[in-house]
């Protein structure tokens, strides 16, 4: 019977084929780590849940810090929340082949992308690397047969609650809120492309659910 090794709690464990993970993880240089893709509409609570997941889930997790051309929000730190690049630098990095995927998200001229270096560094250290990316970016990763990510779609509950969360966050003006809600309606239609769907009604429950699901890939 084929065995696949994955990294949990810093040690190697095996799972039988026939369980959830049937294909070896994508990175041929490190067969014990894998990608986790998290998407969901802007304002659903992805960042809030992930911040807590990283603190509270006892698995070797690492966030991939994306690059973006959008300006930093107050309190956001370059290299921690995002790698903030100007458009010329972003383009240069596209041409250099530095991105695993990149997209213009929300149609307002701002680009977001996953740097290959973020992924390879995490995988090299035996970590599950988490990509918090939009649906278009996620579909590109799903199509690339080198990756076999564990994927989660985070739902806000309903669209009214999503709008409430976006407005209460207070980080976007009206034009941007409208663009994000429009994109959200489109993105919701793709939730069944993900292995797992999480209804983020309670941050506590979402964190616990995601951690438990990830652990199932270890046992
Ligand atoms: N389960 C929840 N219940 C109520 N409010 C929540 C919940 N989860 C997150 N929030 C709040 O909703 C707002 C949006 O959350 P967050 O910034 O994490 O969303 P996001 O999905 O990461 O958005 P974006 O894609 O724009 O980065 C924040 O003010 C956050 O505190
Ligand atoms: N395709 C990608 N999408 C990304 C990446 N990093 C973030 N995102 C998505 O952008 C939105 C907006 O984020 P915000 O910080 O401006 O509120 C968010 O919903 C992410 O899903 C990326 O590297 N690639």
TrEMBL record:
Alphabetized UniProt keyword annotations: ATP-binding, Cytoplasm, Kinase, Nucleotide-binding, Transferase
Protein localization: Cytoplasm
Similarity section: Belongs to the guanylate kinase family.
Record EC number: 2.7.4.8
Catalysed reactions, as listed in the record: GMP + ATP = GDP + ADP
UniProt function note: Essential for recycling GMP and indirectly, cGMP.
A cellular component term, taken from the record's GO annotations: cytosol
Region Disordered: start-end pairs: 1-31
Biased composition (Basic and acidic residues): 8-19
Gene label: gmk
GO function term, MF aspect, one: GMP kinase activity
SMART domains the record matches: GuKc
Source species, domain of life: Bacteria
Biological classification of the source: Bacteria, Pseudomonadati, Planctomycetota, Planctomycetia, Planctomycetales
Protein name (record): Guanylate kinase
UniProt organism field: Crateriforma conspicua
Domain Guanylate kinase-like: 33-215
Chief subcellular location: cytoplasm
Residues noted as binding ATP in the record, renumbered to the chain: 40-47
Pfam family, one: Guanylate_kin
């Amino acid at each position: 019977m084929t065995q696949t090794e994955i990294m949990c709690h810093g040690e190697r464990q095996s799972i039988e084929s026939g369980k959830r993970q049937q294909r070896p993880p994508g990175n041929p240089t490190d067969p014990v780590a894998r990608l986790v893709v998290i998407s969901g509409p802007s304002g659903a609570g992805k960042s809030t849940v992930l911040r807590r997941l990283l603190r509270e889930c006892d698995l070797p997790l690492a966030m991939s810090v994306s690059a973006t051309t959008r300006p930093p929000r107050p309190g956001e730190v370059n290299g921690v929340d995002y790698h903030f690049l100007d458009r010329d630098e972003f383009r240069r990095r596209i041409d250099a082949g530095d991105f695993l995927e990149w997209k213009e998200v929300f149609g307002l001229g701002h680009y977001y992308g996953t740097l290959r270096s973020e992924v390879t560094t995490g995988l090299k250290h035996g970590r599950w690397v988490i990509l918090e990316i939009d649906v278009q970016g996620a579909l590109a990763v799903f199509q690339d047969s080198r990756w076999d990510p564990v994927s989660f779609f985070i739902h806000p509950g309903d669209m009214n609650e999503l709008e409430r969360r976006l407005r209460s966050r207070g980080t976007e003006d009206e034009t941007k809120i409208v663009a994000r809600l429009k994109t959200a309606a489109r993105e919701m239609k793709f939730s069944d492309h993900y292995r797992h769907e999480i209804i983020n009604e309670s941050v506590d429950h979402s964190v616990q659910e995601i951690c438990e699901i990830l652990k199932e890939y270890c046992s």
